[in-house]
Amino acid sequence: MTAGELNIIYGAVIFPGARVTVPAAWMPAIYDALASFRDLPASVRSFVIVTGIYESNGHLLVEVASVPGAMPEGGMARIEEIVQNARDAARRGMH
């Protein structure tokens, strides 16, 4: 799926020109991560956007652009948790 197609499903959580190239087996992890980004409180979601989702050397990379100083305490920790959960799920999906 393209970033544009993912935005239609999950709202504007990913940069429209973002690179999205992952194995099909990882897509459920990507869907869960994007849903989690969509469901963040507005005070966090307003200051983060996914700029890339791709595979590199067998690992899932999720790139984000954010403004941590504008988020409430714990906002970046929640973003890091979402990304780590996606990476863990992708890793399980490959084995």
Characterization of this structure:
- It is a single chain.
- This protein has 95 residues and is of the alpha+beta class.
- It is 46% helix and 26% strand.
- The longest helix has 20 residues.
- The model has no long low-confidence stretch (mean pLDDT 93).
- A hairpin with a 2-residue loop joins strand 2 and strand 3.
Topology record:
Elements lengths: L2 H8 L3 E8 L5 H12 L3 H4 L2 E9 L2 E8 L8 H20 L1
Parallel strand pairs: 1-2
Antiparallel strand pairs: 2-3
Helix pairs in contact: 2-4
Structural descriptors:
95 residues; alpha+beta; three-stranded mixed sheet
Quick description:
The chain has 95 residues and is of the alpha+beta class. It has helices at 3-10, 27-38, 42-45, 75-94, and strands spanning 14-21, 48-56, 59-66.
